Amino acid sequence: MGHKIRENYYVHSCWDETKLWINSNLPQPTDFKNRLVASCGPKFEMIFQTNPQQYIWDELSKGIVPFKFLSDLIQCTEESAYWIAAKVVYLKIDHGWSHSACKKCLTVVDQVENRYYCSKCNKEVISIIHRYNLQMYVTDGTAFISLLFLNREVFQLIEKPAKELNEGLLENVECSYPSELDDLIEKKLMFKVMIEESNISKKDDVYKVIEFTNDETLLKKYCQPSIQVTLNDSSFDYGQSYGGDKHFEKTKAARRASIIDEELRQQRIREIGVGASSSVSTTDGVVRVDVNTIEGVETDAGTTEGDPIFNPAGFGKTDPPTC
């Protein structure tokens, strides 16, 4: 740890500091590291940088944070964190994708006309910030769940602040949400999710994301074969772009959402032991999504184009790899 006293820097070990100042180019820390290596001899190995994904491998391989298929995750009865591998299939934006927050405490503010009130600060606030609050449906071929992404996680995915997307949306009144969010569709990622009390007692199918990774090696190891391949639009049409015929696109999006909602309802029925015929049991104990319930709603009788909207080819037809 470095201290600046009367224009001089002093470096030493410390365990009770509240701030960490990292700058490997400062001469004082460099000199300190060189002296440390010299004092410990040539057999001493010091690691200054580590693989940021290594701790994830450790969590999985050592069972610190176990891996779960979604069909197993929704059956969990204890509050805990788990890793899952899934593909983003739909953005749940009917309740918005961001919110306005107090700049001081980050609490969601209440808006009355053009005025904002923070319940935590207990006063009207003048300065607010926009923060992400986005739900996404994901699947791994065994079930569907909804993941809640907060500001940090969405920013890491989009690499743009919510304020920038909101300003762009104000300039384009034809769009109901930022087009940049469409880039999230069909992304395959490893998510660390938290099972909370509401997921257990209230059967809440929205799970909070703690962190995620797109590490290809991890995805190949833990993804089901059915989501390791890139499915084409004709067999898996998830797009939510509102370009062209906006009414038609919104109708398609609504149908996709209703199909996923129906599958979630069927999952809840299976959880209480009813409607066993709508699931497929396998020798490994994993319950697969019955694609027949989805393929039966593959086309829309109300259109002449027979729009293929939800036919996850291969889902429910292959066993997951042994982990």
Q: Can you offer a commentary on this structure?
A:
This protein is α+β, with helices and mostly antiparallel strands. It folds into two domains: 2-40, no CATH class; 54-93 and 133-160 and 174-295, Beta Barrel (OB fold (Dihydrolipoamide Acetyltransferase, E2P)). It contains ten helices and 13 strands. A five-stranded mixed beta barrel has the order 3-8-9-11-10, surrounded by four helices. Strands 5-6-7 form a three-stranded antiparallel beta sheet, with no helix packed on it. Strand 1 (2-5) and strand 2 (8-11) form a beta hairpin. It is globular, with a radius of gyration of 24 Å. The two termini are 42 Å apart. Pfam families: Rep_fac-A_C (PF08646). GO terms for molecular function: DNA binding; zinc ion binding. Residues 299-323 are annotated as: Disordered. Belongs to the replication factor A protein 1 family. Residues 84-201 form the Replication factor A C-terminal domain.
Summary, kept brief:
This protein has helices spanning 27-40, 54-61, 70-73, 151-158, 162-171, 197-201, 216-222, 225-228, 246-271, 291-295; strands at 2-5, 8-11, 80-92, 98-102, 110-112, 115-118, 123-125, 128-139, 144-150, 188-195, 206-213, 279-281, 287-289. The chain has 323 residues and is an alpha+beta fold.
- The name CATH uses for the topology of the largest domain is OB fold (Dihydrolipoamide Acetyltransferase, E2P)
Number of domains: 2
Total helical elements: 10
In terms of per-residue confidence, which ranges show pLDDT below 50 for 5 or more consecutive residues? Answer: 42-50, 229-251, 274-323
Number-wise, the strands total: 13
Q: Specify the CATH homologous superfamily of the largest domain.
A: Nucleic acid-binding proteins
- Percent strand equals 15-25%
CATH architectural arrangement of the largest domain: Beta Barrel
Tell me, what's the shape?
Answer: globular
- Quaternary form: single chain
How far apart the termini lie comes to 42 Å
CATH class call of the largest domain:
Mainly Beta
Strand order of the largest sheet: 3-8-9-11-10
Summed over residues and divided by their number, the pLDDT gives a mean of 72
Specify the helix fraction band: 25-40%
GO molecular function: DNA binding; zinc ion binding
Domain Replication factor A C-terminal: 84-201
InterPro entries: Euk_RPA1_DBD_C, NA-bd_OB-fold, Rep_factor-A_C
Keywords: DNA-binding, Metal-binding, Zinc, Zinc-finger
